[in-house]
Amino acid sequence: MSDAMLAETITIKGDNGDEIEAYLARPLDTTPRGGVLVIHHMPGYDEGSKEIVRRFAVNGYNAIAPNLFYRVAPGASPDDAAAAARAQGGVPDSQVVGDANGAIEHLKSLESSNGKVGVIGYCSGGRHTFLVACSLKVDAAVDCYGAFVTRTPDPAWGMTAMTPLLELAPNLSSPLLGLFGADDQYPSPAETAELEAELKRHGKTTEFHTFEGAGHSFFSVERPSYRSEAAAEGWQKVFEFYGRHLAS
Amino acid sequence: MCTYLTEKVVLDGAGKGAAGWFRLTDGSVYVDHPTHARYTHTLNIDFLNPAEGPGARVAVELTEEAARALAAAITAALDHAPAGIASENQP
């Protein structure tokens, strides 16, 4: 079996039929395989996010990351686009769901798709992952340290766009793998425990892991928050989870 | 954590970005993950001219201590100069 893959920037139909940019990586072998939607973090559609997309392709998945900030700053560098998106108050949740739907449809349209799709997101993308998995039909979801899923930010912070999503819990359409840091405060271990309890109350399948010695953003190899042991174990759990739920 | 809280300020002046000097019209100030500084969180300032596109941006990422020292230095420098000399209505 060949290990050749293709990674490229493409255009997909996002929310409201808008054309947006996305990064797609896929093995060239057309054996049926699952797809993975990667939702980038607040710092945007950056090199780290694209590397994650390629990592899924190397491991046998079709993977795609839509640029959630494309409308705000088409063609801009990722950090400038993230700054522009922030200056506008972030992107609306409904738009994220629409863009995710377009990306999922694209994955399912690929010749090698087995019809199954997982979603994964980091930081704000972790919150978006829960949002997407509760709003659309997916087969497996991985929330990496998404904050403000169960709790509202302190009103003094003025983060009015970040509404909690816990009321969506009954709608979760797939098993949820949660990967968190014990030293993280956003989300804190108490918040993730609250989320897991609520999901279990609704009969949902969850697998939550909280890594000691790790805080927020422990997967980010280019940041000082990187924790190699937690990241290595976390990646192993991601691939085990997707192996169970996205196989043909 | 990712915060969406952004303090916005109207600016009047100029900044030098990747494509050279441009007029500044807006500023964003917020605490969040930096893009480049070797910290998990920093105080970030974007000096902007949105009319010239998202690339018209000078970005600064500072520790809390550095940001407070900068704010104090700005105030001190202005206090030590003749009042109004750098005003938009300067003589």
From TrEMBL, chain A:
Q: Which GO terms describe its molecular function?
A: hydrolase activity
- Show the InterPro entries listed in the entry: AB_hydrolase_fold, Dienelactn_hydro, Dienelactone_hydrolase-like
Question: One short Pfam family name for this protein?
Answer: DLH
Query: Gene3D superfamilies, per this entry?
Result: alpha/beta hydrolase (3.40.50.1820)
Looking at the record, the residues that make up the Dienelactone hydrolase domain are: 20-245
- Please identify the protein, giving its name as recorded: Carboxymethylenebutenolidase
Q: Which organism is it from?
A: Kutzneria buriramensis
From TrEMBL, chain B:
Return the InterPro entries for the record: DUF6295
Q: Which domain of life is it from?
A: Bacteria
Stated name of the protein:
Uncharacterized protein
Tell me which species this is from.
Kutzneria buriramensis
